[in-house]
Write a structure and sequence with these properties.
The complex is a heterodimer.
Chain A: H1 5-15, E1 20-26, H2 35-45, E2 49-53, H3 64-75, H4 80-93, E3 99-103, H5 105-109, H6 113-123, E4 127-130, H7 142-147, E5 151-152, E6 154-156, H8 165-169, E7 176-179, H9 192-205, E8 210-213, H10 219-226, E9 231-234, H11 236-245, H12 250-265, H13 269-275
Chain B: E1 24-25, E2 28-32, H1 38-53, H2 55-69, E3 75-77, H3 79-88, E4 101-105, H4 116-129, E5 134-139, H5 143-155, E6 158-164, H6 165-170, H7 172-180, E7 184-188, H8 195-208, E8 213-215, H9 226-234, H10 236-249, E9 255-259, H11 264-270, E10 280-288, H12 298-301, E11 303-307, E12 309-314, H13 339-346, E13 351-356, H14 357-371, H15 377-389, E14 398-402, H16 411-417
Parallel strand pairs in B: 4-14, 5-6, 5-8, 6-7, 9-10, 9-14, 10-13
Antiparallel strand pairs in B: 1-2, 2-12, 3-4, 11-12
The chains are: A alpha/beta, B alpha/beta.
Pathway (chain A): Amino-acid biosynthesis; L-tryptophan biosynthesis; L-tryptophan from chorismate: step 5/5
Active site (chain A): 51 (proton acceptor), 62 (proton acceptor)
Enzyme class (chain A): lyase
Chain lengths: 276, 422
Amino acid sequence: MTTDRLSARFAACKSAGRAALVTFVTAGDPTVADTPLILDALVEGGADIIELGMPFTDPMADGPAIELANLRSLGSGTKTKDIFALATAFRTKHPDTPLVLMGYANPMLVRGSEWFADQCKAAGVDGVICVDVPPEEDAEIGPALRAAGIHLIRLATPTTDAARLPAVLNGASGFLYHVAVAGITGKQQAAQAAVEQAVARLKAATDLPIAVGFGVRSAEQAAAIGRVADGVVVGSAIVDIIGSHGDAAAPFVKDFVAALRGALNANSPHFRETAA
Amino acid sequence: MTDSITPPTTLANSLRSQPDASGHFGPFGGRYVAETLMPLILELEKVYKEARQDPAFDAEFTELLRSYVGRPNPLYYAERLTEALRADAAPGPNGQKRGAKIYLKREELNHTGAHKINNCIGQALLARRMGKKKVIAETGAGQHGVATATVAALFGMECKIFMGAKDVERQKPNVFRMKLLGAEVIPVVSGSQTLKDAMNDALRHWVSNVHDTFYIIGTAAGPHPYPELVRDFQSIIGREAREQILEIEGRLPDMLIAPVGGGSNAIGLFHPFLDDAEVKMIGVEAAGEGLAGKHAASLAGGKSGILHGNRTYLLQDEDGQITEAHSISAGLDYPGIGPEHSWLHEIGRVDYMPITDDEALASFQKLSALEGIIPALESAHAVASAEKVAPTLDADQIIIVNLSGRGDKDIFTVASALGVEI
């Protein structure tokens, strides 16, 4: 790949001595017109990588926060073409910030995997997380994304044991998303010791950066996870802010993201030296 | 014609050998679940394979079907319905008498009043084999919820039933039954508040409790191996019907008719006959207010997509968003269909026919009045289909209709549709 924004960003964060901040919002929440301001707020607040959720009527792996965001977005009329238009505009405005589409198989594949991969490529999308296509069904989406040079980001969970991990890693690229809790988004928090153990296990098995998500809601948690992982994913907590503030959410999102980023920066030895 | 009671099992190109090793029926089926669930799905597949090879498992399943469910249930010749349809049937092209003989497979006589219990017994045995003490299920009409709550009571397991809030409202007797049986009924308020949303929330609960919870899926759908194992447990319907019709008539039927929501009763009836080319099959989809309006006919009005763990025909828009299904029958009110039905539809082995709410309501009343059997609204769809098809067949032909459930649960819905206050 000529411009691999994902690996460039993880490398930059690593040399800065901190974890990458990965932030999730649902495209079109509350409306398509509001999303560009929210995406700008994420970048301005200090997000390193943007996960843009493709809304789906039946988001089975998501908790109430993101489920409601999906329904708000679809309720305001978000179409797939709008999501690619948002991605295209984002790429123009933020040429170096990696953009990952996250969602469910049916909206991604309804027009065929080649169509989807082509759209991603044309819009400047760097990676795709498809929640309900496990490695066993890779043929549905993997070959088309790889042919288009789009990273297929896989999920590892607390139930992904040592016997299964190689299957998950086979064909994974960009980064590995460690789902810290066996559950849905935004619910329980994982115990820090369990996260540390899992990240160590994953790092022993792959050179891909490890980002940890599910249940990360505060700057303190982000900082703790950021001390062991290459990236920290925050979704539901941001989506909740959008849920509360609607079309006025952008400044609140920016402040929250800035607090998360500040907590990650504070982990960095360079940052501490500068601050001193 | 086949003269053996036991269906052939080793035909070279058998239609009965699906799914393949990765759980696909042609392009359908598969395992489309979050990574958290994959290890459990793989373990279930392994445990099921072992159980199938274990004579003790089969013996216990069969014994419970006999002593607890009340199997075998009868294959009943519906003579008054047959004669009523014959009276209106036009003679055939050679002047022959028309109006096929209609038999009803009496699944409604099972304990809990529907075919659902067959599958629940099987899955509860698997849950016990896997050491799981808690079971969950989704339910639409409440029949599967009642059946699951029943086996949970029988096996001493903790039970949670996820049910769309709308269905909780329209199926109050079943909600009360489930509670009596010791289950917790959780009304699901997301989305359309019907069966698909109940399934979403059941999956959400499962993914958060995989370590100690077994998900008893109620229909022949979901991630592999569910479509296969549900079909296998429900195939008792077809195996019995096959044996019974051979005993009564000395030959195989000309046609099988069964209602299809997810399609577990239909696949259970059809599967043992799939390799008998002379046996035609009709799966009846719920056409609701008609295919031009709100309906639940995934094959007639949908296209291939991915939902709830499998690739199958789905009601969806051009962006792949799932559209709301509608049927007067809560058990058919689902925007998808089991993957084996999608495959049987595409290869043309089974014909699928849409039947509207109004047609089903008419047949609900007709069967009650003519035969003294109040069918479930689901089953009334199949009866309506038989009413259409029987007069086009010769009088010496035979139809078996799967009377998948009894209609007591539906009397409030039917009364309301007929404008009667009770």
